[in-house]
Amino acid sequence: MKLWEKRGHNSLNDLVERFSVGKDYIYDSKLAIYDVKGTIAHVKMLNKIGVLSDEETVKVLSELEFLGKKFEKEPPTLKIEDEDIHTYIENYLVSRLGDLGKKIHTGRSRNDQVLTALRLYEKDKLKEIIRSIDDLLKELITLSNKLKERKVPMIG
Predict the structure, then answer these.
(1) Tens of pLDDT along 110-137?
(2) How many angstroms separate the Cα of 128 from the Cα of each of 73, 89, 121, 134, 137?
(3) 14-146 adopts what CATH topology?
(4) Which among 120, 104, 115, 110 has a CA at the least distance from the CA of 42?
(5) Which of 15, 31, 37, 117 has the fewest beta carbons closer than 10 A?
(6) Farthest-apart Cα atoms in the chain, separation
């Protein structure tokens, strides 16, 4: 079921759906693992405050961890009908766990999901950039040590 779909009503017009979803479903596959990580943290919080029992938490975490491992090997190929990665994950959980899968959004807005996934993604990308800069600096130091006796003409 889609986020904006209501039971007993006609499905969304295809043109409206294509406009609303745009290309988000393509970009969302890059956020899949981060959405899973954010959802895992949220599920643990739901357990801590008593919304999910220990048994429910184990079931949901097991499915999310399976999905996370699957996404690490290969990100999902989302279709426009999937709407976005958040709905894709919820639909997966509902298909595996029934109504329990719907509980994962308790106390969590769609904006919160998106921001959490984006922040985790950006954090990983920043770590990659920092590693690249560190590698570059090491190379520059090595090169400067090799060439420290070489004279460089300067205009001054």
Answers:
(1) 899 999 999 999 999 999 999 999 999 9
(2) 19, 26, 11, 10, 14
(3) Fumarase C; Chain B, domain 1 (1.10.275)
(4) 104
(5) 15
(6) 80
Q: 13-20: long-range contacts at Cβ-Cβ below 8 A with a sequence spacing of 24 or more?
A: 17/80, 18/80
User: What pTM value is reported for the model?
Assistant: 0.76
DSSP the chain: --TT--TTSPPPPHHHHHHHHTTHHHHHHHHHHHHHHHHHHHHHHHHHTTSS-HHHHHHHHHHHHHHHHHHHHS-----GGG-SHHHHHHHHHHHHHGGGGGGGGTT--HHHHHHHHHHHHHHHHHHHHHHHHHHHHHHHHHHHHHTTTS------
